[in-house]
Amino acid sequence: MVTPSKNNLQKKVNEPETIYKSKSETEQVDAFDYLPAHVKERLEEALQESAKGLGKPHTQVMAEVKAKSNLS
After folding, report:
1. CA-to-CA distance for 31 and 38, rounded, in angstroms?
2. Which of 21, 45, 60, 66 could form a disulfide with 71 if both were Cys (CB 3.0 to 4.6 A apart)?
3. What DSSP letter does each residue of 5-29 carry, written as one string?
């Protein structure tokens, strides 16, 4: 019978150098790509309107909603 030596018992297993990553860590995902076509179209229109200076700032809209709803 062969008795393992003390040195053989202390050997460590060599782990592979490969680092496993999930798809989300290796590829950037753009949520816009998953939106329905009609939503994408409306967002593009809204961005164009915003670039032209049309629309209202968020703070103004929120102030109007609070006033209309009698919120303080």
Report:
1. 15
2. 66
3. PHHHHTPPPPPPS-----HHHHS--
Joined together, the tokens standing for residue 57 give 């700032």
**Tokens 């670039």 -> residue:** 51
Give me the average pLDDT of each 10-residue run along the chain (72 residues). 59 69 68 94 95 93 93 76
Task: Identify whether the C-beta of residue 55 lies closer than 8 Å to the C-beta of residue 49.
Answer: yes
At 64, the amino acid letter reads: E
Cα separations (Å) of 65 from 11, 54, 55?
Answer: 70, 19, 15
Q: How far apart are CA 44 and CA 47, in angstroms?
A: 5
In the chain, where the domains are located: 29-72
Q: How far apart are CA 14 and CA 21, in angstroms?
A: 20
pLDDT of residue 16: 66
pLDDT score for 3? 61
